[in-house]
Amino acid sequence: MEPVLVITNFPNKESALALAEALVDQHLAACVNTLSPCVSMYRWKDNIESAEETPVLIKTQRQHYERIEQLIKKVHPYELPEVIMVPILDGLPAYLQWIVDETTLSD
After folding, report:
1. CA-CA-CA-CA torsion for 85, 88, 89, 94, nearest 10 degrees?
2. Which of 23, 58, 74, 96 makes a 20 to 30 Å CA pair with 15?
3. CA distance linking residue 100 with residue 3, whole number of Å
């Protein structure tokens, strides 16, 4: 069991929710939080940019990371979307087991 948190941002709530529904529907995520919009400030192609974005937190297993990354890249409008995987080192055992149960793909 290797639970992880995948973090990304989308330019609006609608696209974030579409990703969330696809991930849960395909059992690639146990839960996806789409947070309130925030302002991101970053340097892109030698310019300082800012954009309102919707943060997305994906609870899953490490074994699904590649498929999640590919799906994000496929549906994301950005040339270079943020996709970061963070290991979950500890947590409520029953919750961590729920993540595994919800993201175990049947053959």
Report:
1. -160
2. 96
3. 7
